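Technical note accompanying the year-one report. For the benefit of new consortium partners, we illustrate the data format agreed upon in the data management plan: each record pairs a sequence with a structure-token string. No post-processing was applied to the example shown here.
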Amino acid sequence: MGRSASGLGGKRGVPGAAGPCCYGVAMTMLDLPPKPGMSPGNAPGMFQTGMLQTGGKTLTSEQVRGALMAESEYDKFTLEHSRKIQTARQLFYRARDARRNIVTQWRKNYRVLNNKTWTVKSEAWMPTPEVSNIWPLLASMVAWMTDQRPSIETTPALVPFSSMWQEADKMAESMNAVLASSYTVNNEDAEVERLLWDVGTYGIGYTTTNWEPWLADGLGDSAFRRVDPFTIYPDPYARNMEQLNYITEACLMTLDDVDRAWPGAGKLVKNQYYEDVDHSPTKTSDIADPKTPRTRLAPLAGDPTYGSAFGSSTFVKSGRDTEALTTEDPVVMVLKTWIRTHTVDTEGMEDGTARVTDRWKLYVTCGNVCLMEKFADELFGHNRHPYDKMNLFDTGEWYGPSLVEFLTSPQETINSLLQQVQHNIMLIGNPILLQAARAGVRQTTMTNRPGSRMQGTPNDTGWLDPPQLHPDTFRLIEYLESKMESIAGLYAIMRGAMPQGRNATDTINTVQDAAFVRVRATLRNLERLLRSVSEKMAATNAEFYTEARIVLVTGDENKTTAKGIKAMEFYLDYKPGKEGRPVPMRFLIKADAGSERPTSRGARAAEADMLFAMQAIDELEVLQAHAWPHAGEVAGRVMDVKAQNGTLGMPPSRRAASGRTQ
């Protein structure tokens, strides 16, 4: 406890240099004893199979027996770590093989969402219409769920009104400000949006919560980030987070990235190591191979020592004539495996009873090299792994239903029908010519291609009439489109379309709000994720905020204010020089993403108008519900005018309460 967040001491090491897929901590050396015949200075700090060498010194018979005994102890030590590395790798293999069929469906979902439904065409000249109905449905759902800004409320984990309650309550106010600031300053709102796109496309989304030492001008801060679902390999037998026994994240990194995340690792990870992993499709997947070495950035770094720690054998020339002076940085696959362990404590317990506590442990491996072996409470302010997941609907399975997968079949049918319609129109505009044999043109293969010619008798010469479309073709298309709206739960009126007839505003708001039942169900899943994420962030911040800092807080009217956080702000009964070990505060979290409020802005504003007419809320609350600019100043002026006229506190007139102007 009481460790500096910006760098020195404590069991967390130095969270200074970090790169992608790291935890903001220094590389942890696995302390191996020097092998017999090797001087202590040559003993490695990290374990790697087959990299140690013994000396060629002549020994007496007693020295030989002593060396053999010492070497046996050394082999036992190395064998233990070999088993750990191999176990972590086998867990990854099993998780990878168990979800291969799911990944195949994910890739199809990506193509359909990005309007790439025609993967194989029978003929190059055939039309391939792609009118996406999935994109506007999913985009509307993500927009509705991010329309309201989530709020986090913290409560100290103490008995209310105890001796330290007042101090702890102030800590909770400060933690509220810290979490609200992080959501804006660290761009966590963008992470939520990316997460929701993953949930709609693949049926699942992941986040990871870590301490990022490069934030806050080097002071560091905890933040959550969206993680690519293709890189996460969970326990295939787990149906939820409570049943999870292990989880692996596969990170593709350059050697520069590895050395940045775990200083010194580049000297050991010299050979290119790669695993057969699943890569997420992108717009450039057909051009940029993720396994391709990257251009070494050392010449652009300006520091002659940059990247020189790896030696000349690591980086090779690119081999291109135009890049004779360019060297390439190989990529390696780093596996971060979190394994669920437990401790049994019998101290202070009755006979026959014990206290069992889960304790997650991290193994970071690259080939036969173990880069890190640490427990979660040695890295963070909690004892859990950093990952959280969200499903569109929690059906009791790890991989939930995917909206894009459900909409793929009607989308493909619509595109197929549109292809037939377009083909028929092309045959009308450019019909097939039936001509006599004496014309000298022979068609050996006949296709129904517009503008083609076929041989016939002289009496049959002329244009062929194309087949007539079935009269129910467009009805079928409309039916499929309505079914897609029904599957998504987003009807036209919810996507901004004007309803037919004359409908009252309250009626439209009521219909919209009733149709948002599914959206609110997904928002409740988002709230569960935000609660878990915020608990990890609050626990880590409480322990790592050991230096004074200023956080920026954005208010309801987008007014930015600053709040000062003292050094050791979240430690109970902390005083400089006081004996004893300071204890960081723990908080209970409540997350609100809008699942209990009307989803439509119009419905929220109408509800505020009704409450104002009932004198249940004041002018400020009404203006804020309507998102009126400078609501506080406007409400103040309105109340001043009412006070001068003697109408302050009186209910609005019936006409004003109904919103009518005439």
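Partners are asked to follow this layout when depositing records. The first strand starts at residue 151 and ends at 156.
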